[in-house]
Amino acid sequence: MHCSDREGFFNHDFHELIGLIYDSVTSEQGFFPFLQRFIQVFNGHSASFAIYNTAENALLGAWTVNIPEEALRFYSEHVSHRDVLVEKAISVNRQGSCRFVASNLDLGPDVKRLRRDTRAEEWLESYGACEAAGAIAYMDGHYLNFFGMQRSPGQPEFSYEELSVFDGFLPHLHRAVGLYTRLMQRRCGPAVERLVLERVDRGIIICDASFRVAFRNGKADDILKRNAGLWVNKDGMLVAHGNENARQFAVLLSAAVEASIARRELDDQVFSLEQGPQRITLIVTPLQGAAGAESMAQGVLVTLHDWSWSNEINDDLLKSLFDLTDAEAGVAAELVGGQSLSDIAVTSGRSRETVKYHLNNIFRKTGTSRQGELVSLLSRACSSV
């Protein structure tokens, strides 16, 4: 953007775009009008304003301009679990810098290769784009909003000067998304939560504080029908088959419910169930809703990973995907299989401290911080290979 262009921009277009951002809060079209005008002003090919669940590495939904439905579906199935531009933006955000990143400016040669390997370039080319820029507009726990714009081969690459102009919109987007989120929660409450949970590409079960199933999505229903290791009994409670499995699972649920009621942090608990050739991994997480909220605030979230429809996790695959050492890949595979750190220490002949050291390295290399988040990432990544 040249100096003369900048002067005209800040006299008119900038204020128009800021107005469209705040109009998005109450508009039935959401952020679509803003995206449409943004690519007109900044010579873009397409744009998106996407909502991600980082714990599941899943795309939950998006406003888009000039991105076909089939391209969005391809992205959700093949790219969203390892979008290196989004990962770069998250890394920058966690370092305390809220700014735009661009594929031609911020991704080194190794990451560009990974971008090809993860099919991100194939996705861009499928609808005529080649470069992308984006930033974290809003982050709340495991949920984030990513604002991105793409350009075609015939358009100029992104410049640092442009990105500095884009950065000026981020404080306004942050405030607008916060307002939009609070407004939707007031209007729709649990209905919105249920809609989001239905669209998560994993089995999701929510148990209330009395251990009864309050919600389960369609993916969870499919898993429960196929796998005899887990079921809902006549009292509506989620239980595991087999005396020892049932006891261990009940202990995990009880601890998570207690943490939820006390609003106390508790690490995700990973548990594996096998029934013949079928195997599922369960991640048990306390719900931590806001005080006084009328939504599903007290209870337990159980995430199900069904391995009967996925590739088997193996050490070589983990090493190639995340640059893990032999020891780290072994620990990661055992965690996905539902083993605790103590179990892994016993079976591998290492101390628990050594296993925890490997786990911290795995967290760092995968960009995760919790065991449940790690298992979700590994299972999703390997099932897409």
Automatic annotation (TrEMBL):
GO BP term, example: regulation of DNA-templated transcription
SUPFAM superfamilies associated with the record: C-terminal effector domain of the bipartite response regulators
InterPro entries, A to Z: Sig_transdc_resp-reg_C-effctor (IPR016032), Tscrpt_reg_LuxR_C (IPR000792), WH-like_DNA-bd_sf (IPR036388)
Highest taxon above the source species: Bacteria
Record domain HTH luxR-type: where: 321-378
Single GO MF descriptor: DNA binding
Pfam families: GerE (PF00196)
Name of the protein this chain belongs to: Helix-turn-helix transcriptional regulator
Organism: Marinobacter nauticus
Record lineage: Bacteria, Pseudomonadati, Pseudomonadota, Gammaproteobacteria, Pseudomonadales
